[in-house]
Design a protein that fits this description.
Layout: H1 3-52, H2 67-86, E1 97-104, E2 118-128, H3 135-141, E3 146-151, H4 157-170, H5 172-177, E4 178-185, H6 207-210, H7 227-237, E5 240-245, E6 250-252, H8 256-267, E7 278-281, E8 284-287, H9 296-304, E9 308-310, H10 325-329, E10 339-343, E11 353-356, H11 372-382, E12 386-390, E13 395-398, H12 410-431
Parallel strand pairs: 2-3, 2-5, 3-4, 7-12, 8-13
Antiparallel strand pairs: 1-4, 5-11, 6-13, 7-11, 8-9, 10-12
Helix pairs in contact: 2-4, 11-12
Length: 439
């Protein structure tokens, strides 16, 4: 073989090596890209799961801390709670209930818009102890302060206080955003010493395992459930300029706080628009499988597939129908939150809304089932409030509400409150003598 032949052969071998090395690099690049795609897909699935998860699948949101430090924090909070219960001296206007406002406050006051006259929206809600776990998802979805009144009594107090301590210690979103207020009957004052009975509370264990759940519904107790007293305490304890009164088993659409405050900023320059006398209506829905759509488009898709429907669609459609859901559905989807349209109040409409924190309080005579929310919305109407439906905002309730799924004394309680509502409407005529509006 001549010199030229050997040179040619060496050149071909080098070319072959370069070619094989190039193939190896290409395969390696494709493998890296494939791994990246797999990684991103996995992350998206995890994020979707987290965003659509209900309280039962919220364990990944729980803080995984040191058991000893958790116990020390729980014991510290327990001492604060028990000292306040022992020193309670504030009662409601009827003299029937003890009230402890801010029995536990958020860790980081100011971070989520808390503070006197802060330009933000506080979710205002109330609950019995057996629904407290709903705060996990609500606090994660809501980027603002939450004010919650918790009703308890001596037979329920240990469960209630332990639940508050566990949630406050183990969930950062609750610790940073939620203000707790405790209400209990004067003749049913808690007489428990939790300081010596807290060793089983640990953030390493899920809620249902570390605390024995109560099975009773709100109305299945001999003690009447004072909805409107609880609402008023949570409302008066809010420190922001606006409040959003909802039920604790509901979740608002994403970024509602930021988008709403931008709407307020734009509307402030409109001299013909009275922000302080407007109730901004947030259309409410029920979710069959407790998945929370991220935006209006996904909500409309879920509505089309019948996984979501308007709130009270089966149990009291007339109570929500004036929201004009079909009209809301047809509003053009924009990136900017705004008023879609205004509606007139009609009996027995009881929408969920955002309004000034100076909104009229709830009538505390209404207890148990029936007319407790509508009475306050009725007063807004008589007081001259306008009802403006927001175009993109919405609220989702956990599960479908169905007929026949109520407690036994529901009809009796509703009839009692119906009579009180008639009296209430007549009293509004005296309270607002110059108003041309009536309920």
């Amino acid at each position: 073989m001549g010199f030229m032949d050997r040179q040619k052969e060496d050149w071909m071998n080098q070319l072959l090596l370069h070619f094989q090395f190039g193939k190896f690099i290409i395969v390696l690049v494709f493998m890296v890209v494939g791994l990246q795609v797999f990684h991103m897909t996995l992350l998206m699935k995890l994020e979707t799961t987290a965003k659509g998860a209900g309280p039962s699948s919220s364990n990944h949101l729980r803080r995984q801390g040191d058991t000893n430090s958790d116990l020390k924090e729980i014991q510290r909070l327990a001492k604060t709670v028990m000292d306040k219960i022992a020193d309670v001296h504030v009662s409601d206007i009827s003299g029937m209930y003890h009230i402890i406002r801010n029995i536990l406050c958020p860790k980081q006051i100011g971070k989520f818009g808390q503070g006197k006259h802060s330009e933000n929206v506080t979710i205002v809600t109330q609950t019995s102890a057996n629904h407290l776990e709903n705060l996990v998802l609500l606090s994660r979805k809501w980027n603002g302060p939450i004010s919650v009144s918790v009703f308890t009594h001596k037979d329920d107090a240990e469960f209630a206080v332990k639940s508050i301590l566990y949630l406050r210690t183990c969930y950062p979103s609750i610790a940073n955003k939620v203000s707790f207020h405790l209400v209990f009957p004067i003749d049913s004052t808690p007489s428990i010493d939790l300081i010596n009975n807290l060793s089983k509370l640990s953030c390493s264990e899920p809620f249902g395992k570390t605390i024995q759940r109560q099975q009773k519904a709100n109305y299945d107790s001999e003690i009447e459930y004072p909805h409107n007293l609880l609402r008023n305490i949570a409302l008066k304890s809010a420190t922001t300029t606006y409040i959003f009164m909802i039920d604790i088993d509901m979740v608002p659409s994403e970024n509602l706080t930021v988008e709403f405050m931008r709407l307020i900023e734009r509307r402030r320059t409109n001299q013909d628009f009275d922000i302080d006398k407007t109730a901004f209506i947030v259309p409410s829905f029920e979710s069959k499988d407790w998945s929370i759509p991220r935006d209006k488009i996904k909500l409309l898709n879920a509505w089309e597939s019948r996984n979501v429907r308007p709130f009270y669609y089966e149990t009291c459609w007339k109570c929500q129908k004036p929201t004009e859901y079909d009209r809301w559905k047809k509003l053009f989807k924009t990136e900017i939150m705004d008023i879609g349209y205004n509606v007139e109040w009609k009996d027995p409409w009881e929408p969920f809304y955002i309004a000034s924190a100076n909104t009229p309080l709830y009538d505390e005579r209404f207890k148990q089932y029936g007319f407790n929310r509508i009475s306050q919305v009725c007063e807004l109407h008589v007081a001259g409030y306008e009802f403006a439906v927001l175009n993109n905002a919405f609220l989702v309730h956990k599960g479908f509400k169905v007929t026949g799924n109520f407690h036994k004394s529901k009809d009796k309680e509703q009839e009692k409150n119906r009579m009180l509502f008639r009296k209430f409407k007549n009293q509004l005529k005296t309270r607002y003598p110059n108003s041309p509006r009536r309920c």
